[in-house]
Amino acid sequence: MAVGIFDSGLGGLTILDAISKRLPDVPFVYLGDNANAPYGVRSAEDIFNLTCAATERLWAEGCDLVILACNTASAAALKRMQETWVPPEKRVLGVFVPLIEALTERQWGDNSPPREVAVKHVALFATPATVASRAFQRELAYRAIGVDVEAQPCGGLVDAIEQGDEILAEALVRSHVEALKRRMPHPQAAILGCTHYPLFEKTFRAALGPGVKVYSQADLVAESLADYLTRRPEFIGAGQGIRYLTTGDPAYVSDKATQFMRHPVRFEAA
């Protein structure tokens, strides 16, 4: 039984990379729904249906625990999936939780009333669908008060990254940061709310300027999963290694993933 890692495209590979380094003895199956990517411009209903289908495919591979390494799916589909669709013996987890924990400095299971936190002005960079869901703001409001979140929908950025157009991606990052800073000139913290964005974290940091704490997800998710599996070891399967599945063309996706991650990645048809 492996742990399933799902993303609409290649961005989740940044999460998988950190997780596999943190948990080298755990087997993983990665599924990219490249045939239907990007999710960030789709409707909530489309995202829900596609995410459920991908999750079922990972269950078929024996992955009783699935991580939605996709902020759009986590924002638009996860809550509904957990409340109405996931059977009791399975688990589907998202990638917002570790970010919220880090930002509010409290554990997810801490159900005490919302309280003041040190960071008051937060910039959120995410896909249009993630921004429209307001899921990040909703979860943050459960745990913290007095935090101003300014969200910037980063249209076009995922496409540029997936296509390997680094010049366009860097230009879009700078443009989106400038647009946000016109509304929030002095953010204290910035959330890179898409698993593609860590590849351009240096560009985000340079555009934001010094003094802005940038929260990126990969290492936070890896630590959170390690803690979860310590508490729920029944979801750790035997074996090692990683399988890569795609709904797209395996040769094309493998080439893009290798360029994306800067090491060989070989996908097979899902």
Give a description of the structure.
With 270 residues, the protein is of the alpha/beta class. It has two domains: 3-94 and 218-269, Rossmann fold; 97-217, Rossmann fold (3-Layer(aba) Sandwich). It is 45% helix and 17% strand. Helix 10 links the parallel strand 9 (189-192) and strand 10. The model has no long low-confidence stretch (mean pLDDT 93).
Summarize this, please?
This protein has 270 residues and is an alpha/beta fold. 45% of the residues lie in helices and 17% in strands.
The main β sheet shows up as:
6 strands, parallel
Order of helices and strands: EHEHEHHEHEEHHEEHHEHEHEHE
- Poorly predicted ranges (pLDDT <50, ≥5 residues)? none
Structural class: alpha/beta
State the CATH architecture of the largest domain.
Answer: 3-Layer(aba) Sandwich
Number of distinct helices? 12
- Kindly, what is the distance between the CA atoms of the first and last residues, rounded to a whole number of angstroms? 17 Å
- Overall helicity: 40-55%
Shape, per Cα inertia axes? globular
What is the mean predicted local confidence, pLDDT?
A: 93
Oligomer: single chain
CATH names the topology of the largest domain as: Rossmann fold
**In CATH's first tier, which class of the largest domain applies?**
Alpha Beta
Over all CA atoms, what is the radius of gyration? 18 Å
Range of strand content: 15-25%
Number of strands: 12
